[in-house]
Amino acid sequence: MKRILVVDDEPQITRMLRASLQSGGYDVLVAGNGAEAYNRFLADRPDLIITDLAMPEMTGIDLTRAVRQQAQTPIIVLSVRDTDVMKVTALDEGADDYLTKPFSMSELLARVRAQLRRTTEQNAVETQIELGDFTIDIGAHSVLVRGQSVHLTPKEFDLLLLFARSPHRVLTHKVLLRGIWGTAGDNQPEYLRVLVAGLRKKIESGDAHRYILSEPWIGYRFVPDPASAIIDPTELTTS
């Protein structure tokens, strides 16, 4: 049974999350602030962490930073709509995904399943990645989308590989720029827009963006299996 650590300073939220996650078949631990959560993380080593951002004693960002010094445990952050800067900072510090309050439990459970599945897949020896509609041969630099060969430039292949290694995870502009161009890309966001547009033209069918979803002002999310994923229709943006 997978163990999930829920962190929030509002008891009614932790009660609600614990009940829903337990109904989903998970073992649930609860902490009321970041400092308590970090101690529980060290003692119990959960498989996934769900944390609020604004908390006393130790914020969700500080918790994310501390956990990342120890492990790659998936972290989903919860935030209100007026904390976009904190949300981006948390993702840059290593959080894997976020949900904006209020949210539906069905969406949270889908995000939890996606993160746990990604962690399991990353534990395998990586020579070929098969995800949803994609088959990526890393050594041969070849890509199949829905069984059809797609020719990508070296940078497009690098970008797709970054996405494929973190499916269903929000990757910020900064993370993607550094992943492709190193620190030289920090101040060149137009490079990323052009590269994403080129990759979309080759892997998408039509104008709808099913695989690479824009997270406005934050980054992108790769969904390799849109037919089976639970996606908010408002995320299917053409920005």
Protein described:
- It is a single chain.
- The protein is an alpha/beta fold.
- The chain folds into 2 domains: 3-121, 3-Layer(aba) Sandwich (Rossmann fold); 125-235, Arc Repressor Mutant, subunit A (Orthogonal Bundle).
- Helices cover 40% and strands 21% of the residues.
- The protein contains 8 helices and 12 strands.
- A 5-stranded parallel β-sheet has the order 2-1-3-4-5, with helices on both faces. Strands 6-7-8-9 form a 4-stranded antiparallel β-sheet, covered by helices on one side. It has a 3-stranded antiparallel β-sheet with strand order 10-12-11.
- Helix 2 (34-44) packs parallel to helix 3 and helix 6 crosses helix 8 (189-203).
- The longest helix has 18 residues, at 105-122.
- The radius of gyration is 18 Å and the shape is globular.
Topology:
Elements: E1 3-7, H1 11-23, E2 27-31, H2 34-44, E3 48-52, H3 60-68, E4 75-79, H4 84-92, E5 97-100, H5 105-122, E6 128-131, E7 134-137, E8 142-145, E9 148-150, H6 154-164, E10 170-172, H7 173-181, H8 189-203, E11 212-215, E12 219-222
Parallel strand pairs: 1-2, 1-3, 3-4, 4-5
Antiparallel strand pairs: 6-7, 7-8, 8-9, 10-12, 11-12
Helix pairs in contact: 2-3, 6-8
